[in-house]
Amino acid sequence: MNGAKTDYQTARRYLMRKDPVLGTVIKRVGACELPNIPQYPPFMALAEAIASQQLSVKAADTIFGRFCGLFGPDRVPDPARLLQFDTETIRGVGFSRSKVVFLRDLASHVVEQRLHLDRLHEHDDDQVLQQLTAVKGIGQWTAEIFLMFRLQRPDIFPVDDLGLVKAAQRVYGMRQRPTRKKLLKLAETWRPYRSVAAWYLWRSLGISERQKAQGTRQKAKSNQR
């Protein structure tokens, strides 16, 4: 059974109706931009997800950009070509030794046809998770990010993502960071559109930072008067 893609307008209206607190965030953020994210080829998308592990967005983007530069003018990572590079060449763009191992294992799975990336869209969420997590370095979080952003599945919730934990704490006014159990319970309200809810929670962090910066500027102006 294939996983369905998301109807983002329907999801937005549903979440606003089901959760007024999240609805406030949705109104402030506006339309969901998940469908507008560039759709890399599957291998490239997974390589980017590996690059993003345990790094800031800025650092990951820099390293991944250098990595893509290894593949010539088209800048599209290819598994067979990746296996032709030695370890130091890949490490030279900024990858740790462990991430080089992860990238090589992913490429080997594809080249040896143990993983058919071009057919993942035919499988349901659990089947995709099972196939991807068989690769070294692709854990639950990386597989869930692929499901959300590349396959655009509607009901994925990467509960172990630190950004989501921080966002939920802020949005819902929690004194302490929510436990995994508490966050999963909260997310039940958002089914079958947890992917969209997660995206809005991530975006809420950007709103908080902008408001903080604006408050600092306004305070500085007041002090200058």
Notes on the protein architecture:
This protein is mainly alpha-helical and 225 residues long. The chain has two domains: 8-36 and 157-224, Endonuclease Iii, domain 2, CATH 1.10.1670.40; 42-149, Endonuclease III, domain 1 (Orthogonal Bundle), CATH 1.10.340. Helices cover 60% and strands 0% of the residues. It contains twelve helices and no strands. The protein has helices at 8-18, 20-29, 42-52, 57-69, 79-82, 87-91, 97-111, 125-132, 140-149, 162-171, 180-187, 194-224. The longest helix has 31 residues, at 194-224. It is elongated, with a radius of gyration of 20 Å.
Short description:
By secondary structure, the chain is mainly alpha-helical.
SSE layout and pairing:
Layout: H1 8-18, H2 20-29, H3 42-52, H4 57-69, H5 79-82, H6 87-91, H7 97-111, H8 125-132, H9 140-149, H10 162-171, H11 180-187, H12 194-224
